[in-house]
């Protein structure tokens, strides 16, 4: 990086760097102090769903198998009350080129970058998205840089992130590895400025539109095979893009009655920006350290307006423990012959618990899997946990304490999906929005309508929270 690009200098240029690296003038969509025209932001990309499917098919993305997990369904029924135990299906997204659904969002970004004449593409991510961007860049003939938070201040790397570094480099990308801390965004901006590459942010319209094909495909696959849409779709929830894109795809397929459930690993009490806590978790994404902050304030993203707005679309939000995900990962391998990575298995653990409380003729779909290998294996994650002084035991997973213990179930009946209070999330989102206005600005009626849509609530609900907020602050 140019030594003259100080932190203050780069941050002062943030708006211009983002505009030139994404090619979107977000100011055009502002409709009020808090609101923006969300649908127009997406529509102005010029990509409809069928066009995106065509683009993805050219690079081998999408059209992944839908697998009924008959043995896992049987196990759920064996530990359920009579007549209960929904059929569990799995959308095997590991069949995508880099091994996860992230290829869907990366494919459209790479296509857009190529179309606009960018020489390369860059992303800031420690998850599967880096490998997906690197893979799609390779297909498009673009250069690629991935910026990762990879290790703590002692140089101890997360094995899962190390595996993703390996994958990115295998696809020919340059990987900038950083220790945990606030410099990630600064370094990413500096990379964008210096290279002039396209910003394949997780939160642009391209990234969300690319995932719509996932929800659309799975709805049609179940409808074709079973004669109806699924009752429930479970999506692992981190920054909101997976839930948002999948739900929008379901709606475009006509599956308006299908309930969308977000699922995250419970890491309550751990701080994602903490050097101490960085290696005290066994999952790099799909956990509450991302999903709660991004649900309650989506515009904390690296672009001015986040196109991933999970609260708009989720009907329920549940958490599972790290031990439960490790357990279901092993069960999936042993009785279904599918060895897959931890991200999709988060929603699978939640789906298993939920299926036990659904009727036998109902259908629940886990909408993703991811590839596995090396650092993604439970053994690698559990070995690091033990090195960090975390107790790993068998027992009741409900007794686990993130950062202190991982409790692996002794019996499948111990797997539970714990509900997150959506009303609490909605109120937290609204309070964050109102705080962002400061003391001298107030929401307009346009803002009220936007906030009601963004929280999947009503205008009266939003006005009630606004009244409470200004009543307390005034």
From TrEMBL:
Family matches, as Gene3D superfamilies: 3.40.50.1100
One Pfam family linked to the record: PALP
Needed co-factor(s): pyridoxal 5'-phosphate
Keyword Lyase included in the entry's annotation: yes
Keywords of this entry: Lyase, Pyridoxal phosphate
Domain Tryptophan synthase beta chain-like PALP: 59-366
Range of residues in the leader sequence: none
Matches recorded under InterPro entries: AKP_thiolase_beta, Cys_Synth/Cystath_Beta-Synth, TrpB-like_PALP, TrpB-like_PALP_sf
Protein name (Swiss-Prot/TrEMBL): PLP-dependent lyase/thiolase
Organism this protein belongs to: Desulforhabdus amnigena
């Amino acid at each position: 990086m140019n030594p003259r690009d100080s932190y203050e200098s780069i941050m002062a240029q943030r708006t211009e760097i983002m505009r030139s690296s994404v090619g979107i003038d977000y100011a055009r969509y502002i409709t009020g102090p808090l609101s923006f025209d969300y649908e127009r932001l997406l529509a102005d990309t010029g990509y409809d769903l069928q066009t995106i499917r065509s683009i993805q098919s050219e690079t081998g993305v999408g059209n992944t198998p839908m697998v009924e997990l008959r043995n896992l369904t049987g196990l759920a029924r064996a530990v359920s009350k009579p007549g209960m135990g929904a059929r569990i299906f799995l959308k095997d997204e590991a069949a995508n080129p880099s091994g996860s659904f992230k290829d869907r969002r990366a494919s459209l970004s790479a296509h857009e970058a190529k179309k606009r004449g960018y020489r390369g593409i860059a992303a800031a991510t420690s998850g599967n998205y880096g490998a997906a961007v690197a893979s799609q860049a390779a297909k498009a003939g673009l250069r690629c840089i991935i910026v990762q938070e990879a290790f703590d201040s002692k140089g101890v790397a997360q094995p899962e992130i190390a595996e993703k570094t390996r994958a990115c480099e295998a696809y020919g990308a340059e990987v900038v590895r950083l220790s945990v801390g606030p410099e990630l965004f600064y370094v990413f901006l500096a990379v964008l400025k210096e290279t002039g590459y396209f910003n394949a942010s997780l939160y642009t319209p391209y990234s969300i539109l690319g995932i719509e094909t996932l929800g659309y495909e799975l709805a049609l696959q179940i409808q074709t095979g079973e004669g109806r849409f699924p009752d429930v779709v479970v999506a692992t929830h981190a920054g909101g893009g997976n839930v948002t894109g999948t739900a929008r795809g379901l709606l475009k397929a006509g599956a308006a009655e299908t309930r969308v459930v977000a699922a995250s690993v419970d890491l309550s009490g751990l701080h994602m920006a903490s050097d101490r806590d960085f290696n005290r978790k066994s999952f790099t994404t799909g956990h509450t350290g991302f999903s709660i902050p991004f649900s309650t304030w989506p515009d904390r993203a690296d672009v001015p307006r986040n196109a991933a707005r999970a609260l708009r679309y989720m009907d329920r939000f549940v958490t599972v423990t790290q031990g439960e995900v490790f357990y279901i990962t092993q069960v999936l391998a042993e009785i279904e012959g599918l060895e897959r990575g931890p991200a999709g298995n988060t929603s699978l653990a939640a789906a298993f618990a939920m299926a036990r409380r659904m009727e036998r003729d109902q259908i629940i779909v886990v909408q993703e899997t991811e590839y596995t290998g090396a650092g993604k294996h439970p053994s690698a994650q559990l070995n690091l946990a033990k090195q960090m002084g975390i107790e790993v035991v068998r027992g009741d997973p409900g007794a686990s304490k993130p950062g202190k213990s991982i409790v692996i179930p002794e019996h499948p009946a111990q797997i539970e999906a714990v509900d997150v209070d959506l009303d609490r999330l909605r109120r937290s989102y609204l309070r964050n929005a109102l705080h962002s206005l400061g003391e001298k600005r107030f929401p307009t009626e346009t803002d009220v309508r936007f906030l009601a849509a963004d929280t999947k609530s009503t205008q009266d609900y939003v006005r009630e929270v606004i009244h409470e907020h200004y009543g307390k602050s005034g």
